[in-house]
Write a structure and sequence with these properties.
Blueprint: H1 7-17, H2 30-43, H3 50-66, H4 76-94, H5 98-105, E1 120-121, H6 125-129, E2 138-145, E3 160-167, H7 172-182, E4 189-193, H8 204-232, H9 237-242, H10 248-254, H11 258-266, H12 278-298, H13 306-314, H14 319-322, H15 326-350, H16 356-380, H17 391-400, H18 406-410, H19 427-449, H20 451-475, H21 481-488, H22 491-496, H23 507-513, H24 523-538, H25 547-566, H26 569-574, H27 580-607, H28 611-617, H29 622-627, H30 629-645, H31 655-691, E5 700-702, E6 708-710, E7 716-719, E8 726-729, E9 732-734, E10 740-741, E11 744-745
Parallel strand pairs: 1-3
Antiparallel strand pairs: 2-3, 2-4, 5-6, 7-8, 8-9, 10-11
Helix pairs in contact: 3-4, 3-7, 4-5, 4-7, 8-10, 8-16, 11-31, 12-15, 12-30, 12-31, 15-19, 15-24, 15-27, 16-19, 16-30, 16-31, 19-20, 20-24, 20-27, 24-27, 25-27, 30-31
């Protein structure tokens, strides 16, 4: 027979097992609130005795009132109003008014897990915000204690945060004055931050963002409606694909059709002329980017930061995550490969002629619209997409980092100016890629004129980049990224070394210490990609080798790639650094050798020596996903930051939690990327092709329904008797079909604007 339940157990059961629909707080009797209060007092920590807490708050307001007015004259009017409101809330709490109890119950208290990094106590954000009566609403605030104010650390936090809840009439300055007295004028109170309780009015950037979004949505709706109507007039969808309307207005609107663009994006047809394996490599590289950022961004808001160090120290598999920066080098390699392959093919077809200004313009118009809207969204609309303890601070930082320098991103010089530019942080890759693209015609023309001269130029630039990286690493005493990441997760290193992100940086420091985002340290991989593209073209996509050579190549490439990713684990595990010579050697050769592994992967798959790896990477499922990688790259960073900063409590890192976080982010990134692609990216690509057609159209006659009708419809068949693919049109032989990229048809005059993303 079980023992009878005590009154405390009965009260606790009533609290825990009553659903919200059954428990109406407003109708609770005064006696019940007294019992709940009694239970809370018996279970709370000594530092949160309810009556003592109210007395301490009263003493703080009395102390503020007794101070000389001149000390607080900057906030006198609001300070008086704030203290009156606090007195009212305190009195209501003693009278067991629910809103007042919720305000004080939402205050943070020190929690366990301090040695694991749990020193950011956020209380209950929503409980404070929903504490409302006729005249007062709760305003959540957070106080930073420590030697310096550092809201978003890159490693173990060095300051302690405690959340509080005040009447919304109190200004941030008044709250800081009161908290100074509440905490007995502690010299460690560095900063108080209180997000606004009401949504701020729309700014010019917000209105501009809404206007552009509405404009594109209108075009998408109209284009889709026109497309649906025209399709309804046709007997089959194939007719629509073959015939195009001649009215320029109709053609422009059809560029925004969700139906047409959706068909192109989701098409999984394997077309002749595609370069196998590139789609799979592109998708896996994008996945690697998201995985790496899932771990690194979570460090901002963890309640067990030291667990990161334990995971890194105990699990060598974590090296594949903290070495995720090689995924960016993979994109550089693919970009160089595509530019070189398509560029030299175009030069040979046109006998050395390229309209370089048009080439640049098409590239700019291909990439910039979606990028510009993403920046506009981050500046004007992002802060309205969430709320939480960290949300306002982080969203404002995202906005402030771009508000004055956004134009540098649209000119693709954000990796140069200003010296330190955090506007849309992932944009440094796009700046480098555009700059490399601008330089690419120099190497293409040189190779077309003289294969030896072009090859020497590519090799010279690559060697120069490696030497520059090595010298900067040696004289700057720099360490590889995995080692830096592991050190930032060390508690003692965190307290003695300032690993915060610098807000200011001189050009001298940038040129001496930055080996990550500067083009002279990244261009080598791009050059290796270009060399690979030229090699594939010269060998017509086939490099014959003995099966034993292919086997040795796969074993060597796999072993070297694993060595690059995992070889630093002993140093990461022991929180040690490399010697200057070893660090210089590693940083000089790691990226180029990684690119050489990609050379083998690409060439082997193209040449027919890829086996199941080539089959898997060429899986048709990767085709639609590969078309979304650019837009997913633009959106994933905002999604990661959004999820982390809207949480009411700091994130508790573990492999299971991060896996769920990663897959959710990956799904949302590709989902939002699809929306961005279908509304902006692909419509703009269609407009570019419409404005700069690859070939002169055949004579057509217009029909009554707005579609063009060819004067003569040739019969197309493939001549399979020849060893080289040819096409026979009305008895005339022509060359094989033009190249297809990402599963979609791309005229050769427009193929040069393809990006690796």
């Amino acid at each position: 027979m079980s023992a009878p339940k005590t009154e405390r157990e009965i009260i606790l059961e009533n609290i825990l097992y009553k659903t919200n629909s059954e428990l109406n707080y407003e109708d609770l009797s005064k006696d019940r609130l007294l019992k709940v209060r009694s239970f809370l007092k018996e279970t709370e920590s000594p530092g949160r005795d309810f009556d003592q807490f109210l007395e301490a708050l009263k003493r703080a307001t009395i102390a503020v009132q007794s101070k000389a007015i001149r000390k607080y004259e900057r906030a006198t009017e609001n300070l008086n109003q704030c203290m009156q409101a606090i007195d009212l809330v305190t009195e209501d709490a003693q009278n067991l008014q629910l809103y007042a109890l919720k305000m004080f119950d939402s205050w943070a208290v020190p929690e366990s897990g301090i040695l694991e990094g749990n020193v950011r106590w956020t209380g209950h954000f929503k409980e404070c915000r929903t504490a409302i009566n006729q005249t007062i609403q709760g305003r959540w605030c957070i106080s930073y204690f420590g030697f310096r104010y550092e809201p978003m650390p890159q490693g173990y936090p060095i300051d302690i945060t405690l959340a509080s809840c005040f009447p919304d009439i109190c200004s941030e300055e008044s709250i800081q004055i009161i908290l100074e007295q509440f905490y007995n004028e502690s010299p460690f109170l560095q900063h108080v931050m209180c997000p606004p309780t009401k949504r701020e009015p729309l700014t010019a950037a917000s209105i501009t963002g809404i206007a552009f979004a509405a404009f594109f949505l209108y075009l998408v709706a109209m284009g889709t409606a026109i497309d649906v109507v025209l399709r309804a007039k046709k007997k089959s969808v194939s007719d629509v694909a073959e015939e195009k309307p001649t009215a320029i207005g109709v053609q422009i609107m059809l560029c925004f059709s969700v139906v047409s663009n959706g068909e192109k994006i989701l098409d999984m047809t394997k077309r002749p002329g595609t370069i196998p394996s590139l789609d799979g490599i592109r998708v896996f590289s994008m996945t690697w980017v998201v995985l790496g950022h899932s771990y690194t961004l979570s460090i901002m808001v963890l309640d067990n930061t030291s667990e990161v160090g334990r995971l890194i120290k105990s699990n060598a598999a974590m090296m594949s995550i903290i070495s995720g920066h090689y995924s960016v080098d993979t994109f550089f390699f693919l970009s160089g490969l595509l530019v070189a392959y398509l560029g030299i093919k175009h030069l040979n077809k046109t006998k050395g002629k390229i309209n370089v200004p048009l080439m640049y313009l098409q590239r700019y118009l291909r990439l910039t619209p979606a990028y510009a809207f993403a920046i506009l969204f981050s500046v004007g609309l992002y802060r309205y997409c969430g709320s939480g303890p960290y949300w306002t601070e982080v969203a404002d930082r995202v906005r402030d980092q771009c508000i004055n320098v956004w134009w540098t991103n649209l000119l693709y010089i954000n990796n140069f100016y200003p010296a330190i530019n955090y506007c849309y942080g992932i944009g440094w890759y796009l700046a480098n890629d555009m700059q490399f693209y601008i330089l690419s015609p120099i190497f293409l023309f040189a190779f077309y004129r003289s294969k030896i001269a072009g090859s020497l130029m590519i090799g010279f630039v690559c060697i120069g980049s490696m030497l520059t990286t090595g010298l900067l690493t040696y004289f700057g005493e720099l360490q590889p990224i995995p080692i830096v990441f592991s050190l930032q997760s060390s508690v003692f290193y965190r307290f003695f070394i300032n690993t915060s992100v610098p807000m200011e940086l001189s050009y001298s420091d940038k040129f001496q210490l930055d080996t990550y985002s500067t083009p002279w340290c990244r261009i080598c991989v791009y050059m290796i990609g270009m060399a690979t593209g030229l090699l594939i073209y010269e060998r017509k996509g086939k490099i014959k080798m003995h099966w034993a050579v292919a086997l040795i190549g796969w074993i060597s490439a796999g072993a070297v790639a694993c060595a690059i990713v995992y070889s630093l684990f002993p140093q990461v595990r022991d929180f040690e650094t490399l010697s200057p010579n070893l660090s210089t050697f590693f940083e000089t050769f790691a990226r180029p050798v990684w690119a050489l592994c990609l050379v083998w992967l690409t060439v082997a798959c193209i040449s027919g020596y890829g086996g199941p790896i080539a089959t898997f990477l060429d899986w048709s499922v990767f085709k639609p996903l590969s078309r979304l990688t650019y837009s997913a790259y633009l959106t994933h960073f905002l999604i990661l930051t959004w999820y982390m900063t809207i949480q009411e409590k700091p994130f508790h890192i573990s492999n299971v939690n991060v896996v769920y976080y990663f897959f959710g982010t990956l799904f949302l990134a590709f989902g939002s990327g699809f929306v961005l692609s279908i509304c902006i990216e692909w419509p703009m690509m269609g407009l570019v092709k419409l404005a700069f057609p690859g070939a002169k159209p055949k004579p057509v006659k217009q029909t009554s329904n707005g579609y063009s009708q060819p004067e003569e419809k040739p019969v197309v068949k493939t001549d399979i008797a020849k060893s080289k693919p040819e096409i026979v049109i009305n008895g005339n032989r022509i060359k094989k079909p033009e190249l297809h990229i990402n599963g979609g048809f791309v005229p050769e005059k427009q193929a040069l604007d393809q990006t690796a993303l």
